Amino acid sequence: MRFLTLLLTCASQVLCASATRAGTVGTVGTVKTSDGIRLHYNQTGPRHGQNMLFITGWRQTALEWHKQADYFSSAGFRVTTYDMRGHGDSEEPDFGYRLSRFAADLNDLLTQLDLEDLTIVGHSMGCSVAWAWWDQYPEVRKRVSHFVFADDVASLVANPHWTPAEKAQLGGFLTPAMMYDLAADMTNQLAPLIESMFTPNLSTSDFEWILSQNRKMTDAHAATLFLHQSSLDWRDVFPRITVPSLVLGGELSIGPASAVEWVATQIPGAQHYTFTAAEKGSHFVFWENPGRFNSMVEDFITQ
């Protein structure tokens, strides 16, 4: 028994020494927003590595970035993921489900964790959160060195008065009626909606797990947030983004790839890539083709 205890103690000391030499620390914690809500976050990778922050899309959780967190923390980056209010393991209040509040939450996270020289990687609505933050907090933009925007468009809902050209540029793949119908029937519509965001290659086990992550948020709050974010138009923000940006889309995404590409044309100097069908270019390409996704993001940051 003493031998086993001694062996375990020695092993623990070796592991701690190795971690100390590498400077690698995993941290799980919470930050408190300016309106009193606790947001759950996780940090992995070397303590002094270049900072990366991953922002999920609507109803998704920080755990869904694990293929990126594992890769980039192993590559020497300091990776932060977090659950937005109402999502995952964060608190779910009965207020604040609008993008301006989510941008304020993001700013609270950045300042309390003191993230500098930061690459922000946003997916879907996570891009919109980053756009709202950039728009609202010009005094702290200096914290960000790079943006990666994965598969979001200027506007999800088409204005009936837009020309065909405007609709093609801005996205607008939902009508106002579709938006309200989906929000009113969120419980029944969630599973088919999430399924439409992936290729048919997604395994049943992966789908069920991702769906379970989505269901950590109540349908009522998800509907409120969906209605708000769908009605926004980000055109005036794009030309004012002044840090290197990479815009990624997918041929098989639920939104038009051409509209994602148009976003890139509006951000000064932005790079763009559309994942093909052969590359599993779905709305969730970072999940279905993490190797290609991660290498492209890493090349962009380090080039």
A few lines on this structure:
The protein is α/β, with parallel strands linked by helices and 303 residues long.
Walk me through the structure.
- The protein is 44% helix and 18% strand.
- The chain is an alpha/beta fold.
- The chain has one domain: Rossmann fold, CATH 3.40.50.
- The strands form 2 sheets. Strands 1-2-4-3-5-6-9-10 form an 8-stranded mixed sheet, with helices on both faces. Strands 7-8 form a two-stranded parallel ribbon.
- Helix 4 links the parallel strand 5 and strand 6.
- Helix 6 runs antiparallel to helix 9.
- The N terminus is likely disordered.
- This is Alpha/Beta hydrolase protein.
- Keywords: Hydrolase, Signal.
- InterPro entries: AB_hydrolase_1, AB_hydrolase_fold, AB_hydrolase_sf, Epox_hydrolase-like.
Order of helices and strands: HEEEHEHEHEEHEHHHHEHEHH
Tell me the name of the CATH homologous superfamily: Alpha/Beta hydrolase fold, catalytic domain
Which CATH C-level class is it?
Alpha Beta
Quaternary structure classification = single chain
Distance between the termini: 54 Å
User: Structural class of the secondary structure composition?
Assistant: alpha/beta
What is the general shape? globular
Biggest sheet features: 8 strands, mixed
What share of the residues does DSSP label as strand, in percent?
15-25%
Number of strands: 10
Number of helices: 12
Identify low-pLDDT runs: 1-23
Please name the CATH architecture.
Answer: 3-Layer(aba) Sandwich
CATH topology, by name, is Rossmann fold
Q: What radius of gyration results from the CA coordinates? A: 20 Å
Overall pLDDT metric? 92
